[in-house]
């Protein structure tokens, strides 16, 4: 959300008389504000200001302790520093993540991050397929993706999953995805992917017709990458030539 902080008369205050931040807020079931996190590292956000102090965006609920972060910050060391300072069960993470193959795909990266750090990651990406921004879900440190969506149709979704506490077994997996339309209509989203083309190229597809619903292909340079299928839970990958 946009967050405006009046600062008129204070040192470093801009001429407009306020600072503005890219901000996450978390409320409890009663509507009480639990934590506010102002994004600390920008990705071409020229209209926003940086927070003046380091933050520890931790909040505790009756089902665990979490941190709240925004987008690009998940790639940086700071999130790991804070996570290791206290006992944390997971990260609540909002983003406008543009999918970039082969290493920057949302669902792939989010699941890898969760399992690599043994934390639950609740990731909410904006639905903007025309800018390759799509892919949200709930990812567990041991079980990987509990529920996720990666559908470039411009439809918002509410993702719900049963998440076991850290180091506990997932005895009864349960999840659901509910589509939420702009007019407030909701329905259970049951998608099997039958209509998705298996092959495509930007050379044969026209430019997107709807920025909010169409996803288009992009060419990637794979010269510096070697893809190897991983078949074991651990071990070493032999060098390739």
Automatic annotation (TrEMBL):
Residues 1-179 form the CN hydrolase domain. Transmembrane segments: none annotated. InterPro entries: Biotinidase/VNN (IPR040154), C-N_Hydrolase (IPR003010), C-N_Hydrolase_sf (IPR036526). It comes from the Eukaryota. Gene3D superfamilies: Carbon-nitrogen hydrolase. Belongs to the carbon-nitrogen hydrolase superfamily. BTD/VNN family. This is Biotinidase. The lineage of its organism: Eukaryota, Metazoa, Ecdysozoa, Arthropoda, Chelicerata. The gene is Btd.
